[in-house]
Amino acid sequence: MAIAREKLITQLEQTTSALVKLVSGLEDNALDFKPETDSWSIREILAHLVDDEMYVMRLRLVRIVREDLPNLVPHDEKKWYLHRNTSRDKLEELLEDFSIQRRASLGIIQMMRESDWIREGIQPEYGQFSAEKWLEKWAGHDVVHLKQINQNLAAFQK
C-alpha cells in the first residue's frame, strides 16, 4: 500500500503545477465559457477546487485521523454553487488560494503515521472508508477536474 499511497501523494503534489500549466494566461472569456448550460466554467472549477480543498477534502481527512469513526456530512455542490464566495475569483487569486490550501493539506498528509492511514470514517455517499481510501478519492477528484478543464478548453477552442 505504501507505494500506491506515495504515487497518490505525488499526484496531489503535482496538481497545482498542472492547473497553472492548463490555465495560465487564459482570458476571462475562456475562463467563463461553459460548454453546456448546466456545466461549470473553468473559473468555477478552480473555485470549487479551492473550496473543496479547504472545507471538504482536508477536513474529512483530519476528522478521520482525530475522531473515532466520524460521520462525515455530504457536500452539496449545487448549494455551494448557488452561494459560493466570488470575492477572490481572479485567476491569479484562485491559483494562489489553491496552492496555499494544497500545501496545507500536504503538510498534514506528510505528518501522518502508518496507523493514521487505517483509521476510518463514514459518509452516506461512500459508506465506511479508511484515510487511505479517502486519499484515493481525493486524487481521483483532482483527475476528474483536470480532465473537465481540458474538455472546457477544447470546447472553447472549437
Automatic annotation (TrEMBL):
SUPFAM superfamilies: DinB/YfiT-like putative metalloenzymes. Residues 11-149 form the DinB-like domain. Keywords: Plasmid. InterPro entries: DinB-like, DinB/YfiT-like. This is DinB family protein. It comes from Candidatus Chlorohelix allophototropha.
